[in-house]
Amino acid sequence: MSGCRQLWGMRQFVILGHEVPTEPDFALDNLTGAGRLDLLARCVTASMLLSHGIREDVRTHLILRDEFTVQFDSTELRGLHPDERSAAALVRTALEEKEEAIGHIPVETSPGVSLIRRGFEPTLDALSGTVLQLQEGGESAVDLAVPDSPVFVLSDHHDFTDSEQEILAERADNAVRIGPLALHADHTVTVAHNWCDTDGYKTY
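User: That's the sequence. What structure does it adopt?
Assistant: Structure tokens below.
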């Protein structure tokens, strides 16, 4: 994609998957039935990929059932293609190594992909940056300055649970809506990138 300018530091996405299996025995031809892993896989591709390449300085953290985190790092990432099966296969490969994940020490399962045995709260605590909870009732993004190192937190097809809301009430700098309509999680990731790319929808 020509003309794209880097306007940010590290950009991160934390995506909560409430029903995704933590066993690697799901079929890649039925990702909808695997706890809506299809949606999380599309979030990965939306966060990582440009039209003809991979974004710089992006990390995406998939929280699986508040037990494991699969982390994607665009700097080292290899083998990701613009389809949900590709991303889901990387998640499945990560879960195949879950016995090697001891404590909070990450295990690299493929280039740019790591598995960590920790849930939402410790993952959020380990990240640095401005934490922005993406939700329909948040403050309008057009009224906010784009932070240098945003950490976007969003949920899958379920709303945030009460316990997740409590964690975010303590740790999120803002609750933000990035548009006037509710979007699917993967579309929300794309619009969040656009908000950052355009310095708050100001520069195209």
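The first strand starts at residue 11 and ends at 17.
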